[in-house]
Amino acid sequence: MSEKPILSVRNLKTYFDVTKGLFSKKQIVKAVDDVSFDVMPNETFGLVGESGCGKTTLGRTIVKLYDPVEGSIEFLGKDIANLKGAELKAYRKDMQMIFQDPYASLNPRMTVGEIIKEPMIIHNIYNTDQEREERVVELLRIVGLKPDHIRRYPAEFSGGQRQRIGIARALAVNPKFIVCDEPISALDVSIQAQVINLLENIQKEMGLSYLFIAHDLSMVKHISDKIGVMYLGHMVEMGKSEDVYHRPLHPYTTALLSAIPIPDPDTAKAKSRIILEGEIPSPINPPAGCPFSTRCPKATERCRQEMPQPIEVGGRIVACHLYER
Ligand code: SF4
User: Fold this and answer.
1) Does 296 sit in the ligand 1 pocket, CB within 6 Å?
2) What pLDDT is recorded for position 127?
3) 146 lines ligand 1 (CB under 6 A)
């Protein structure tokens, strides 16, 4: 019997009404527009795209911080749309999130021990404070911090250490899935690889699945089994990490990859760089036809009129008229 996805997202749409005055024209931001993908158990799905492409909104919709206007999210075979009360609490325990900013996401007035213990108390895990304390010490060890850090405050730690505290807090309730929302973007380059390695080790040890959101394709490639590329609320390409990284199909993925710096100057010289002209269009007023048509070097008249539908090409999904037969 084939394995079933732990997370299955279908035709998901998350829109926000940003109309300013009572008599103004209605303005809707289509932050996530008709997105579908699966994440398998123990798998990491990397989600990339420029700022404003909808990747963080997608992650927040999955953890139920936002409600979608259409589509479905199934977790372990169950639609989470109408979860309430105890069922919603159980979902929040299984589905945790690590935030981008390790400075803003930790309460500065709480000690590290209190921060990590808080979700255990909310979800009634462990009967006594001593059991919780022992688990906090174990979690500190798992994320590479010391037992005596338990009584310290977030301000006493570096950015990388604070992100480790955030990871320990997410692990405190023994989740099955973690949405990692740009967990390394705010960290020094030298620390980024350490946090990625830590997340990989924890995944192996605890059998977790991740949705790993980032704007850096090279970092996503390192940790991900599959990669999805988002542009203006749409998933424009999705496939195995190696395929998307080494043989991109969609012109937007090709442009994102060409922007990655190459350390070897000779290789860098041989590689042609695609400079994307213009800003990402506003999701309030997206272009007609293909959302990438205003910046795509291969756009045709058809692209400016007709939205390409996602199709399967060589084992991956791509939404581009160039690949339609
Ligand atoms: Fe470019 Fe057209 Fe493909 Fe869109 S559909 S990515 S505009 S070639």
Assistant:
1) yes
2) 86
3) no
Distance from the alpha carbon of residue 26 to the mean position of ligand 1, in angstroms: 29
Angstrom distances, CA of residue 95 to CA of 129, 179, 251, 311? 24, 7, 33, 30
Pocket of ligand 1 contains residue 302 by CB under 6 Å = no
Q: What is the pTM of this model?
A: 0.91
248 Cβ inside 6 Å of ligand 1: no
The pLDDT of residue 264: 59
* pLDDT above 90 coverage of the chain, percent: 74
Backbone angles phi, psi at 134, to 5 degrees: -65, -40
Q: What is the pLDDT of residues 171-207, one digit of tens each?
A: 999 999 999 999 888 788 888 888 899 999 999 999 9
The finding on whether 298 has its CB within 6 A of some atom of ligand 1 is: yes
* Number of DSSP helices (H) and strands (E) in the chain, helices first: 10, 12
Residue 158 corresponds to which tokens in the numbers above?
């570096």
Confidence band for 263, pLDDT divided at 50, 70 and 90: low
Question: Looking at the predicted structure, is the pLDDT value of residue 221 above 60?
Answer: yes
Q: Report the pLDDT value the prediction gives residue 279, as an integer from 0 to 100.
A: 76
Residue closest to 3 by CA, chosen among 57, 49, 31, 41: 41
- The residue whose CB lies within 8 Å of the most ligand 1 atoms, and thus the one to mutate among 322, 323, 324, is 322
CATH fold for domain 7-244: Rossmann fold (3.40.50)
Task: Tell me which residue has its CA closest to atom 3 in ligand 1.
Answer: 320
311 CA → ligand 1 middle, Å: 13
